[in-house]
Write a structure and sequence with these properties.
alpha/beta; globular; three-stranded mixed β-sheet; 11 strands; about 280 residues; six-stranded mixed β-sheet
């Protein structure tokens, strides 16, 4: 993942021109609603329709992308009563998908514009947010002012007995400011105990823990009392753990990625994507 502003500085040209150099005049194959927060919320809202209310806190711009985002979410059970609409560009991502990567298992490159998400602040999260049965913080590295206060926000949610879920994204700000150093997800290691469910991919797990292999990363999160976590690794098996506080106690173990998906991607040349 790279940020549009940084890519423009590096290339010395506007992103629209740079994208043309990469893909020519080809138009996007499809437009999707993306984002590690809203996608998870839509899944939850659909599964729990008529059983729970699900609200999205975030920000969009008053542009066409923002209108498209609102239009799509309004077709789902998710409430956007707390969605800020600002005079900025909407958070958007151009996704370049390489179908042939890793023996046709697929890989993606993300070029992300933070846009209006720069203007989401802790004060935008009201008491209802923290009193929720489940409080989800999705991809906060792409909402910088939330990310920088994640420790306090997690603590406030736990004070209200909310189950806390954190799912991560590539933290380009941290990587750029301290290349090769550990990423700061929370302000201090004590705050990890306020996370009930932590979802990461392998690269994110290694960078957040400051370790160099998946076993050491898992040990890091276990020792810091993260109640449960999942570490994905592309087409390879995922790692999972639960200390028994929220879910049944599960020692660190591996679970396979669906082999059918891998076979279908490998032999169906018409498919684009990854596992």
């Amino acid at each position: 993942l790279v940020l549009t502003d940084d890519l423009e500085k590096f290339a010395g040209k506007k992103f629209e021109n740079l994208l043309g150099e990469i893909v020519g005049d080809r138009q996007p194959d499809k437009y999707n609603l993306g984002g590690p927060s809203i996608v998870a919320l839509i899944h939850a809202a659909q599964l729990l329709a008529n059983k729970a209310s699900v609200s999205f806190y975030g920000a969009i711009g008053n542009d066409q992308a923002g209108k498209n985002i609102k239009e799509i979410i309004n077709k789902t059970p998710v409430s956007i009563n707390h969605l800020k609409i600002l005079p900025h560009t909407s958070p958007t991502t151009n996704v370049l998908s390489d179908h042939s990567f890793s023996d046709n298992q697929g890989e993606r490159t993300f070029i992300h514009n933070i846009g209006a998400a720069w203007e989401v602040y802790p004060d935008d999260l009201n008491d209802d947010f923290f009193r929720s049965d489940i409080t989800a913080f999705g991809g906060t590295a792409l909402a910088p002012n939330i990310h920088d206060h994640l420790s306090e926000l997690l603590e406030k949610a736990k004070q209200n007995n909310s189950i806390t879920l954190v799912n991560t994204v590539f933290d380009f700000r941290s990587e750029k400011s301290n290349p090769g150093s550990r990423w700061q997800l929370v302000r201090n290691d004590e705050s990890f105990r306020n996370i009930d469910i932590l979802l990461m991919d392998l690269e994110e797990a290694l960078k957040i823990s400051g370790t160099d292999n998946i076993q050491n990363a898992a040990d890091f999160f276990i020792q810091r009392s993260v109640s449960s976590f999942v570490i994905t690794n592309g087409a390879r098996p995922i790692w999972c753990f639960s200390d028994g506080r929220l879910f049944k106690k599960i020692p660190l173990k591996q679970l396979p990625v669906s082999e059918n998906v891998s076979i279908e991607l490998k032999f169906n040349s018409g498919l684009a994507g990854d596992t």
